[in-house]
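As a point of orientation, let us examine one representative protein, giving the amino acid sequence and backbone structure tokens.
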Amino acid sequence: MSATAPAQRPPLPPFTDHSAAEKVRLAEDGWNSRDPDRVVLAYTPGTRWRNRAEFVDGREQARALLQRKWAREHDYRLIKELWAHSGDHIAVRFAYEWHDDSGQWYRSYGNENWQFDADGLMHTRFACINDLPIREDQRLFHWPPGRRPDDHPGLSALGL
């Protein structure tokens, strides 16, 4: 691993409207880095995920899932939006665009339910995701690789 996890990962629960929205944007930024070593640091060492039909137990399995994911999902661009929060739980909806090795574009839609420990590390992540084939001219997420610019519309503004 290229870095070590911080003792705390603010914002910390219990979440307010503002801190939950900040946590969601930080998660989006991390995933848009497409750096599995960076992303897994937001999760507890014993994190548990359900990602589609795959079950993950721990950071190492999460890292392996992310490595496989970004090896097949090229030009990945993700937008997350806060759906609800309470205490140490956050629910988000998201969409991301990517293409496969053949050049077929997809917009993947989904929902995630997250639970955090007292230090702000995510210990549980349940993700439901559906892939919609799209034409390249139907893409809506246009920014250079990495963090979504602050002035790029979010899901609601895009009508998603």
User: Anything to note?
Assistant: The chain is about 20% helix and 40% strand.
